[in-house]
Structures are given as structure tokens and as C-alpha cells.
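2024-03-11 09:14:02 DEBUG pipeline.ingest accepted 1 chain
2024-03-11 09:14:02 DEBUG pipeline.ingest length=204
2024-03-11 09:14:03 DEBUG pipeline.predict start
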Amino acid sequence: MTLPKRLLDLTLTLLLAVLLAPVLVLLLAVLAVTEGRPFFYVSERMRAPGRPFGLIKLRTMPVGADRVGGVTGGDKQRSLSRMHRLLRRSRADEIPQLWNVLRGDMSLVGPRPPLRRYVEDYPELYAAVLQSRPGITGLASLVYHGHEERLLAACATPAETDAVYRRRCIPAKARLDLIYARHRSLCWDLALIGRTALKPFHRD
């Protein structure tokens, strides 16, 4: 990561932390009433091959559902409450990841951090993708996220979800992540951040 990109991350993250702190407090109060503790969920993700970190999110699954592992398909989505669906759809569950950006685990813009199993199964692909530091948002997140959710929502079992994710989602997102890597700039990062902020107000 270049120094200008890191400085942009720190500046915008601190600003967003101040602006979103009241929103996070409100969400925690609502979750306390509707869902109960724990409020946060820490998932192991990969910053680079061989470099795991704990990605922090607001919990959007029933306690214990993470034992199944893997990405979220239709089999898991059926267990989501209305509040959990709202958090995911608005991406408000990702507000705590600002802490990951401050720590240097992530950037504001970059490929979404993958699970260890996929990095180990596709080492050459992720060695290229993770040349860019993982991000909260990015080109693949904006372009492909809605389509990925629809593909995985049609899956009825964890095995089917995993197979579809490997066959359809990983290659498509990697292509977009590598396009971002070839053309990344601070101006493009700002444009992607702006599109991410407006995304909840637009249909996919």
C-alpha cells in the first residue's frame, strides 16, 4: 500500500468513525432489544496468503451458525431475522470494519478479504488478487455483490453454496479485483467510496 492511499484511509476512516458513531450506538441499542448479545462477530479472513486477521462485523447470524463455516447461501439466509437482513442489505453490519482499517488489516477500497479455505485452494489466484490490501468496498463489491447474493440465495445446502461460490463467484470477482489493481488511483478510490455511500439508495 502506498503512503498516499494509507493517509487517505486514515483520514476518511477517522471522519467516518465520528459520523457513524451515533448510528452504531443506535444499532447496538436496537440489537440489544431485538437480538441480544453478542453484538459483534469476528471472522478469520486473509490479508495475504499466510497472513490471517480477525474481521469484525455486527453479528447477523444466530449464535452458533458460524460452525457451519463458508459463505452465506440460501440454507443460512433462511435463519436470518428481519433485523439481520436489514443490516446486511444496508451493509451497516460492516461499520465496525473501520477498526480493521485503522489497524492496517484492510483498506477502505480493495478486494473483499477471503476465507482461508479459498486462499489455500486457489493460491496463485489469491496471490495476485491480494497484492491489493483487502477493502471494505471495491469494484467487485459494487459490480458483483447483488448478483452473487442472488446466485447463493438459490442454494439449498452448504455443499451447493460452496460449489456455486467456487465455480461462479470466485473467478468473476477476481477478474474485477485485478482490473481494479491495474488501474487503481486515489481518484478511483474516492469514486468507489462515493458509489458505496449512495448504493443503499439505488437498486442493483
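2024-03-11 09:14:41 DEBUG pipeline.report The chain is about 60% helix and 10% strand.
2024-03-11 09:14:41 DEBUG pipeline.predict end
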